[in-house]
Amino acid sequence: MDSTDEFLGELPLPPHVTAEDATFAVKAVTVHVAKQWPDGLRCRNDRAPHPCRLHRWGRRVLDLRGLTDRQIRTLLAEQNAPQP
Fold it and tell me: Could you tell me if 27 and 19 are in contact, meaning their C-beta atoms sit under 8 angstroms apart?
């Protein structure tokens, strides 16, 4: 975590994870992926140390929705696949 994360803390989770929350979570983990920078892995979107707050929030929401790591990886691969 960087100093911003330490100051702001984690994003709160929704009390009941809905399908809409899961859709936002997939978007968060798709957009906020790791990228190698000279100083280490950082978020491609906001350059915060990876995993950034939104990526962590998205993973926690998907975990609460009951998705396994394998299912999450499959979802992300589908989201990143080129569209015909």
Answer: no
Instruction: Give the C-alpha separation, 35 to 50, whole Å.
Output: 8
From residue 27, alpha-carbon distances to 2, 6, 7, 22, 37 in Å are: 22, 24, 24, 9, 22
Residue ranges of alpha helices (H) inside 1-84 are 3-8, 19-31, 53-64, 69-80
- Nearest alpha carbon to residue 72 among 16, 34, 22: 22
The pLDDT tens digits of the residues spanning 40-75 come to 999 999 999 999 999 999 999 999 999 999 998 888
Q: Residue 47 and residue 74: Cα distance in Å, rounded?
A: 25
